[in-house]
Design goal:
Blueprint: H1 56-75, E1 83-90, E2 94-101, E3 106-113, H2 118-132, E4 142-148, E5 151-157, E6 162-163, H3 164-167, H4 173-192, E7 205-209, E8 215-219, E9 227-229, E10 234-236, H5 247-250, H6 259-275, H7 285-294, H8 300-303, H9 309-318, H10 330-342, H11 353-363, H12 365-381, H13 392-425, H14 432-456, H15 461-475, H16 478-490, H17 496-517, H18 523-547, H19 557-566, H20 570-583, H21 588-607, H22 611-631, H23 636-656, H24 661-677, H25 682-701, H26 707-724, H27 728-746, H28 753-769, H29 774-793, H30 799-815, H31 821-839, H32 845-861, H33 866-885, H34 896-913, H35 918-937, H36 943-960, H37 968-987, H38 993-1009, H39 1014-1030, H40 1037-1054, H41 1059-1075, H42 1079-1099, H43 1104-1117
Antiparallel strand pairs: 1-2, 2-3, 3-5, 4-5, 6-7, 7-8, 9-10
Helix pairs in contact: 4-6, 4-10, 6-9, 9-10, 11-13, 13-14, 13-15, 14-15, 15-16, 15-17, 16-17, 17-18, 18-19, 19-20, 19-21, 20-21, 21-22, 21-23, 22-23, 23-24, 23-25, 24-25, 25-26, 25-27, 26-27, 27-28, 27-29, 28-29, 29-30, 29-31, 30-31, 31-32, 31-33, 32-33, 33-34, 33-35, 34-35, 35-36, 35-37, 36-37, ...
């Protein structure tokens, strides 16, 4: 049978409360207040004078119980919900009955509460509902709560077992340990749901034995120590069984009770399982309370030498007086017990000599002094046998000397920290000189500690490392601080201040790593990195911070804010930080905590797509950092936090297509302020590099020159590594700056090989340092893809570069499966590969289908991803162009027109998300120009498509037509629109001269911008051919033909293997042959034209539709059999 404790007054009955040597108490009454040791129990119960008559309360309670039982039995006599089979236990607060649930045909236990007090009934139900949340095979299950005829009840699991205190007599040691282990797991589950048991003991563990002999323990009766409201007074019940109660529990301070209180109770139960009785058993309750608070329990192996030493160590760790020295959780206890059962070394360690001596010197100096005097007297009278190597007198002397050293070192710590606070409070300046003073002080401190170590040995090491750790923490040297603070803890110097400082330092390392993780390309990559950093930094930080709650520092709101921040309770961290500002208005650190909490909330809001909320939190965080920096004007860490927040604003605004200049200037200013305070600060240089990269990308997307920003980014990233050592993020930032610079410079005709080579090399180094760094794989994929594009432009084979690019981008996708960016990049480079295939007669449809599949996957993840919409539009545009050039049906459902509509839809979606996006506007205009060609081929009016194309391009034309143009792609797009306009004019009988001239001007500017590119030359040649073909008699056809041939020959010198260029040259030769008066010259020109056209069509079969008529003309003009065989056609040169 399982009983559930109400937590009010005497607990409801459970068979586990019978037996044992230790009495159960429900409160500490005031008649014993003549015991001075109990005067500090804050919630000791009082008994009103009118209830203190001998025997009266007991008889009244008995009469009330009988009356209530009869009332309950009458209420359930004809109850249709449960069949009550009889009472199995009764107490002052109620009774428990065995019953059957007819609906589920199972036996249950029914607990009835006698009291009708509204507050008590509400508490009764709340406790039941809370325990019902616990779902664990070793915790009694609660099925239902309700009322019948005004009687509150709880239906719960019926357990056919006996209390562990009785059952253990028939168990082996291993079985007893397994019971404690299983109960610890169940207890941990209760703690996880927010419940604390408060009365863990052998009587509240029921052990059920199956028919096969398998033992299953159940923990019963969660939830004691609650406020009970009576008619005449309010009594605070400190319930439990004294010899299982923790020191903080017997003190009656309910605020100090947490999961470690239950760990103590389970440790006392383990103690009982090892020696047969709990600690301090057999004494009156108040004597037990005194000893629980002031004395260590007798060691297990002093009672029974057969007890394993590891189990004694585990037990004594559970029974530590100070909660932070116990196991941090019941699960940690269970895991150590499992290690014992597995034969592995346990994690628990005996208290160090330093700690024991320090505790005695601090808490019992009078007792120790008297003991020392007695020992001296005994020594004068005769010999004293000592079981330790060091005499008691020597222990006291050393303890006192250690105490004096700790006091002296503590003063040093305060002076160093105060000195740095003064330095930070001065107007913004270089703090190098002040930090040098502290470094010198730390060196002196190390020498003094070493000298003390010659006298005290290891006793001086703990306080010494603590002082050094605090000093390095004041300097912001977090790694060194962590090293020394954790060495202090290892040496046994684990005061609350020391554990709090260690937790704060470890937490700083975690937050620093978290900021780096947030720059990873996807939530999955971020979560993987965060999980690794949590294991390395967060878990120990939380362990230290939680264990420091017993100290004075930990009781302050600032410490609570730090703990909440690291536990991810960001709202609580902000509130506690706000409280800390009220309590300590001079604390700028509290304002930093508020900013950190808001910045963490912004990250979560951004992940949910709530960009407005994220921006609001970021700007609020920046305001708090501003308040902190106004108080500590020279603390560089505050400016680092400000810069991180501004980088977050830039990242969000960049996705939204907003102007980044304001945020960029603020981020750079914060970085510069940090570098003023600490001129060699690697974090500030790294933040500055990323601010430049965000700004450069924004400039590039707007058609502006990003090179100055990118050059600054590379310089700052290199500086960060010079000051802080090699770092994959820094290498990645250099690589990103290089490929972005190459992308821009390719558009203005500069050689990009060096920049792309450096981009590849930098990202390779980042991958060598971190093979799972997704951004590095993404960016090296971009750089390799761009190398493939450049190779294709110059007539080299680009497939090796494209394949390697795809490999790295797929790796980035595998590392970041929820991030659309690498998929968007795959779309782009598969589109570029398809373009190369189209130019060399290879069917591009499979490659374009892969490109579109990547785009669809990216948009399914993030529909607002602008680059994915743009790249999807590019792939559809190329597919439509292939349908046109290969002779596809332009009227079918899957024709060029339908494909172009999908391209236009993709670009319009991008523009809806980012109205200023240049790529979207160019892509939309290009698709509209191609649509005009389709409409002309179908005899439709293309005017509307051409107007829409011009409108899309309007905002980028001002830059493109500037005397110093910086956007070659916009010029090509404009030329395409003007050529389509010229053909439309010619088809309607109008003069196409003006649009032809406008196209010529745009292409001439593009050529001037990039004179090393064959593309503008070939496009100009094509324009001259069109204009010559459409020239009226007496026009300037000869001039256009001559200029066209000149342009195409120049293009072939740059890219001799491009089939389309040879076909274009062949068509121009046909036009020249038409005008030749000399028959021999005419035949020679036709012969040359046929050779060029045959070679071109052999190199690219898709040219047949456009150039077949030109080749047919040469065949008609040349006599049968005349001419030389066509060459084998152009060959793609291997990539250099």
């Amino acid at each position: 049978m399982c009983a559930f404790a109400s937590g009010h007054g005497s607990s409801l009955p459970s068979p586990c409360e019978s037996g044992g040597d230790c009495d159960t108490i429900s409160s500490v009454p005031s008649p014993f207040s003549d015991r001075p040791s109990l005067l500090d129990i804050p919630h000791a119960a009082t008994i009103p004078a009118d209830r203190a008559q001998d025997g009266a309360p007991e008889s009244a309670a008995r009469m009330n119980a009988v009356s209530s039982r009869r009332s309950t039995e009458l209420a359930v006599a004809n109850w249709d919900r449960y069949e009550v089979m009889g009472m199995v236990g009764e107490g002052g607060m109620g009774a428990v009955y065995k019953a059957r649930d007819p609906r589920l045909n199972r036996l249950i236990a029914l607990k009835f509460l006698r009291s009708h007090d509204v507050g008590l009934v509400e508490h009764f139900f709340r406790e039941a509902q809370a325990q019902a949340r616990i779902d664990h095979p070793n915790v009694c299950k609660v099925y239902e709560v309700g009322e019948v005829a005004g009687h509150p009840y709880i239906a719960m699991q019926l357990i056919q077992g006996e209390p562990f205190g009785d059952a253990m007599r028939a168990m082996s040691l291993e079985q007893r340990v397994k019971v404690i282990r299983d109960v610890a797991e169940g207890l941990h589950e209760g703690h996880r749901t927010g419940l604390i048991h408060r009365d863990v003991k052998s009587g509240n563990i029921l052990v059920e034995r199956s028919q096969t002999g398998t033992l299953t323990p159940y923990l019963v009766d969660f939830g004691l120590a609650r406020e009970i409201k009576g008619q005449d007074s309010t009594i605070f019940s400190v319930e439990g069984t004294p010899c299982y109660m923790s020191p903080e529990q017997v003190a009656g301070d309910l605020r100090q009770l947490d999961r470690r209180t239950d760990v103590y109770g389970l440790g006392a139960t383990l103690y009982e399982a090892l020696v047969g009785e709990p600690p301090f058993s057999g004494l009156p309750p108040l004597d037990v309370i005194w000893r629980v608070r002031t004395e260590q329990p007798r060691p297990v192996r002093d009672i029974d030498r057969r007890a394993p030493a590891d189990l004694e160590t585990i037990t004594l760790k559970c029974l530590e007086k100070e909660p932070h020295r116990r196991y941090d959780s019941a699960r940690a206890l269970a895991e150590d017990l499992q290690r014992y059962l597995d034969g592995d070394p346990v994690r628990a360690r005996r208290a160090s000599f330093l700690y024991v001596a320090w505790s005695k010197a601090r808490k019992h100096r009078i007792v120790l002094s008297l003991s020392l005097a007695a020992l001296v007297a005994l020594g004068a009278a005769g010999a004293v046998l000592m079981r330790s190597r060091i005499s008691a007198a020597e222990q006291v002397r050393r303890a006192e000397e250690v105490a004096a050293l700790a006091q002296e070192i503590g003063q040093d710590v305060k002076e160093m920290e105060l000195f740095m606070r003064y330095a930070y409070a001065l107007p913004l300046h270089d703090t190098t000189r002040e930090k040098a003073v502290i470094h010198a002080r730390l060196e002196d401190l190390e020498r003094r500690i070493a000298a003390s170590g010659e006298r005290l040995g290891a006793l001086a090491e703990g306080p010494g490392h603590y002082a050094l750790g605090r000093g390095f923490l004041a300097l912001g040297a977090i790694e060194e601080a962590v090293r020394h603070l954790e060495l202090a803890l290892v040496q046994g110097y684990d005061t609350p201040d020391a554990t709090f400082a260690a937790g704060r330092a470890r937490g700083m390392l975690y937050l620093r790593a978290l900021d780096k993780a947030r720059r990873l390309p996807s939530r999955e990559a971020q979560e993987a990195q965060q999980a690794e950093m949590a294991r390395e930094h967060l878990e120990p930080a939380l362990r230290y911070l939680r264990s420091s709650v017993a100290g004075a520092r930990a009781a302050m709101p600032y410490a609570a804010a730090v703990l909440a921040l690291h536990e991810g309770r960001l709202d609580d961290a902000y509130v506690e930080g706000k409280r800390a500002v009220v309590v300590e208005p001079w604390s700028y650190e509290a304002r930093v905590i508020q900013g950190d909490a808001l910045r963490g909330r912004a990250v979560l809001a951004e992940e949910r797509g709530e960009h407005e909320q994220a921006l609001l939190d970021l700007h609020r965080a920046i305001a708090h950092y501003g308040e902190a920096s106004a108080m500590a004007t020279s603390d560089p860490a505050i400016y680092d936090a400000q810069a991180e927040a501004w980088l977050g604003v830039m990242r969000i605004d960049s996705h939204r297509g907003a102007d980044l200049r304001g945020a960029y200037e603020q981020a750079i200013q914060a970085c510069n302020q940090s570098l003023t305070a600490e001129p060699r600060r690697a974090a500030a240089a790294a933040n500055k590099a990323w601010a430049h990269i965000h700004h450069g990308w924004s400039l590039y997307r707007q058609g502006e020159d990003p090179r100055a920003a990118l050059q600054s980014a590379m310089k700052d990233a290199e500086q960060a590594m010079q000051w802080g050592g090699p770092d994959p993020l820094a290498y990645n930032s250099i690589g990103a700056a290089c490929w972005l610079r190459a992308q821009y410079e390719a558009g203005i005709g500069l050689d990009t090989d060096e920049a792309l080579g450096r981009a590849v090399e930098s990202n390779r180094r980042a991958i060598e340092m971190d093979p799972n760094y997704g951004w590095a794989h993404n960016d090296i994929g971009i750089a390799l893809g761009l190398l493939g594009e450049r190779a294709a432009e110059r007539g080299f084979d680009p497939l090796r570069h494209f394949s390697e690019s795809a490999h790295h981008l797929d790796r980035a996708i595998a590392l970041s499966p929820g991030d659309p960016t690498p998929r968007a990049n795959q779309t782009w480079f598969y589109a570029q590969r398809a373009m190369h295939e189209m130019e060399h007669g290879v069917d591009p449809v499979p490659t374009l289908n892969r490109a579109l599949a990547y785009a669809e996957a990216a948009l399914a993840m993030r529909p607002e991803h602008v680059a994915s919409h743009n790249n999807q539009g590019l792939a559809f545009t190329l597919l439509a162009s292939h349908i046109l050039t290969s002779g596809g049906d332009t009227r079918g459902p899957g024709d060029a027109r339908g494909t172009l509509d999908r391209a236009i839809g993709a670009f319009e979606a991008a523009l809806h998300l980012s109205p200023s996006d240049v790529e979207a506007r160019r892509g939309l205009a290009t698709a509209r120009a191609l649509l005009a060609r389709v409409q002309l081929a179908r005899g439709e009016d293309p005017a509307q498509a051409l107007r829409a194309g011009r409108q899309a391009l309007a905002t980028t034309l001002a830059t493109a037509l500037d005397p110093s143009p910086t956007d070659g792609e916009t010029l090509f797009t404009l030329a395409a629109l003007e050529r389509a306009t010229a053909w439309a004019a010619a088809s309607s009988g109008r003069n196409p001269r003006r649009p032809f001239q406008a196209a010529h001007d745009a292409l001439s500017k593009a050529h001037a911008l990039n004179p090393r590119s064959a593309r503008p030359l070939a496009t100009l040649a094509s324009l001259h051919r069109d204009r010559a073909e459409l020239s009226r008699p007496g026009g300037r056809a000869d001039g256009d033909i001559a200029e066209g041939l000149q342009r195409i020959r120049a293009a072939l010198e740059l890219t001799p293997t491009m089939p389309a260029y040879r076909a274009l040259q062949g068509s121009l030769l046909v036009l020249r042959a038409r005008g030749a008066r000399d028959p021999g010259v005419r035949m020679a020109l036709y012969q040359q034209a046929r050779e060029e056209l045959q070679a071109a069509l052999k190199g690219n079969r898709f040219l047949e539709r456009e150039y077949g008529r030109w080749l047919a003309e040469t065949e008609l003009q040349l006599p049968a059999g005349e001419g030389t065989p066509a060459s084998s056609g152009p060959q793609v040169r291997p990539a250099p």
